[in-house]
Write a structure and sequence with these properties.
Strand content: 15-25%
Largest sheet: 4 strands, parallel
Strand order of the largest sheet: 2-1-3-4
Helix content: 40-55%
Radius of gyration: 19 Å
Oligomer: single chain
Distance between the termini: 18 Å
Length: 256
């Protein structure tokens, strides 16, 4: 039986991000699992096309990667993705995997960073260990992509509560999409009398496209917080650079 691992992400055309986050994750997995072939797949069509046009490199989609792995004799497939929650993108990936599932004797899919009940507390612990010293007596905002999706909204609400409990109520999740936007968070912070420093971090495996909403321009989180009298401190690192979060992704991989 020939085993293969498929590492799935939205992808990036930035070589530094690819090296520091995505290829590093592949290397970490390779160090822990011997005699396993590791491949990568990108879910973002635009990223794949831009990368192909820019460098000539052809990173496959999930379906294309699975077909190629089947052709190469892999019979047992394990999929790990960099998804944070099981929202639309994760479900779309799961559908693509299911459509090709019969090609293999066995297919296992690791769950995203936060999905089942035990994940909320473990993720909150990781957030606390990584950002506690930087936040100090200030507030923390996790900036997530989010979605107009009831399941994603519920997940974010539960996770926000778990994290806030570890920061004495001074932690929030603000999403770019859906009802849990920065406006709602700012209203909560004003109502609670929060002032001073606010640490903002991207709640995503890589920084990627979130950066344009995070800092450096008009109407970014940094700009809007400053306009409301806060002192924003922007962390321009994705979760994939921190061991505390990588351990959770690998834990889910072992449990798949």
């Amino acid at each position: 039986m020939k085993k293969g691992f498929l590492v799935v992400s939205r992808g990036s055309v930035d070589e530094d991000i690819r090296e520091r986050y995505l290829k590093e994750l592949e290397l970490i997995i390779g160090e822990r699992f011997e005699d396993v072939e590791i491949r990568a797949a990108y879910t973002d069509d635009k990223v794949r096309k831009e990368l192909r046009d820019k460098t000539g490199e052809k990173v496959p989609s999930v379906k294309a990667a699975m077909l190629a792995m089947k052709e190469d004799g892999i019979t047992e497939l394990t999929v790990i993705s960099t998804h944070v929650v099981s929202g639309y993108d994760y479900r779309k990936m799961s559908e693509d995997i299911s459509s090709c599932g019969t090609l293999f004797q066995r297919v296992r899919v690791a769950r995203p960073l936060v999905e089942i009940e035990q994940d909320f507390d473990l993720c909150a612990r990781a957030v606390q260990s990584v950002y506690r010293d930087k936040v100090g007596d200030g507030c923390l905002i996790l900036m997530a992509r989010g979605a107009d999706d009831p399941d994603t909204e519920e997940t974010m609400e539960k996770l926000e509560k778990a994290i806030a409990d570890r920061f004495d109520g001074r932690a929030y999740i603000a999403t770019l999409n859906g009802s849990r936007g920065l406006t709602r968070v700012l209203m909560d912070m004003k109502r609670q009398g929060r002032t001073g420093k606010v640490v903002v971090v991207p709640f995503s495996f890589i920084l990627g496209e979130l950066k344009e909403h995070l800092c450096g321009g008009e109407n970014t989180f940094e700009d809007r917080l400053s306009n409301q009298g806060y002192e924003p401190v922007i962390v321009e690192n994705g979760l994939g650079l921190y061991d505390a979060f990588l351990r959770l992704y690998l834990k889910h991989l072992y449990e798949a």
